[in-house]
């Protein structure tokens, strides 16, 4: 068989995507006091639509939450005064990250489904970027670790107490587990495995220009509003609508004419 290029491979593999997608959600958003320099944690109400509007207007996706294994290793004082992880050098603000999924356009609608064990429920609002744009911002696929791999866990815990722990900040938000939960909770799932999300993360906030965006997502009734908001810089489609119709519309944009 003759050799093919990476791009030709992507075109033949329906399970691969050249885009990385950031979706928004509605509900309670916890603003961690350690991240936002607040006297105590604060909870605010957000909507998926308003969040997308704010992202577009600011040209920035704010890393509002901390992620990864090391999020469980930050020093924490309980209500009874006991402090956990006293020897830890890790700070929660090191673990802020912006999340993306490599889910192909044909299957983005699955991200909106309620899935047992997943705490976040996304809605059909978001932005899609070419992979190269996210990579240019030092984005990286999640580093998934089998939770029963005690040697790996021991290695991570060595980092936690290391006086030079700050040197490992760039990789800390990227570490997630699959298998029995590292830290089980009553009523929680007995198994976690979100590798199917093909998640990428950028440590810290993610800034962009409108030309960095390939296309956007929103409900059909909001498409005209969002396309006006971006001055027609890129199209919007409803991920819950017909995929073939969505692709036909996207191919109408010069920068998406090669969409498969």
Q: Which strand order do you get reading across the main beta sheet? A: 1-8-14-15
What is the radius of gyration computed over CA atoms, rounded to a whole number of angstroms?
20 Å
Q: What's the count of strands?
A: 15
Q: Which stretches are low in confidence, meaning pLDDT under 50 for 5 or more residues running? A: none
Mean pLDDT: 90
Q: What is the terminal-to-terminal distance?
A: 23 Å
Structural class: alpha+beta
Strand content: 15-25%
Number of helices: 7
Q: What about the largest sheet?
A: 4 strands, mixed
The coarse overall form would be: globular
Give helix and strand order, one letter per element, not per position. HEEHEHEEEEEHEEHEEEEHEH
Helix content: 10-25%
Descriptive key words:
alpha+beta; globular; four-stranded mixed β-sheet; 15 strands; 260 residues
């Amino acid at each position: 068989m003759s050799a093919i290029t990476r791009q030709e491979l992507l075109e033949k593999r329906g399970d691969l995507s050249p885009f990385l997608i950031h979706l928004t959600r509605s509900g309670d958003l916890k603003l961690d006091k350690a991240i936002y320099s607040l006297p105590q944690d604060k909870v605010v109400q957000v909507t998926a639509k308003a969040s997308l509007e704010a992202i577009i207007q600011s040209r920035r996706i704010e890393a509002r939450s901390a992620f990864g294994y090391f999020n469980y290793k930050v020093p924490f004082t309980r209500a009874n005064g006991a402090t956990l992880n006293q020897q830890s050098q890790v700070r929660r603000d090191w673990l802020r990250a912006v999340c993306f999924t490599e889910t192909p356009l044909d299957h983005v609608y699955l991200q909106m489904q309620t899935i047992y064990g997943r705490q976040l429920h996304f809605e059909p609002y978001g932005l899609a970027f070419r992979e190269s744009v996210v990579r240019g911002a030092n984005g990286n696929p999640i580093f998934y670790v089998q939770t029963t791999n005690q040697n790996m866990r021991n290695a991570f815990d060595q980092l936690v107490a290391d006086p030079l722990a700050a040197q490992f900040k760039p990789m800390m938000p990227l570490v997630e587990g699959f298998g029995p939960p590292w830290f089980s909770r009553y009523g929680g799932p007995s198994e976690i495995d979100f590798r199917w999300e093909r998640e990428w993360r950028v440590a810290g906030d993610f800034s962009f220009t409108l030309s960095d965006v390939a296309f956007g997502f929103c409900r059909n009734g909001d498409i005209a509003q969002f396309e006006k908001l971006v001055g027609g810089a890129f199209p919007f489609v409803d991920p819950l609508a017909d995929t073939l119709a969505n692709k036909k519309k996207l191919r109408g944009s010069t920068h998406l004419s090669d969409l498969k």
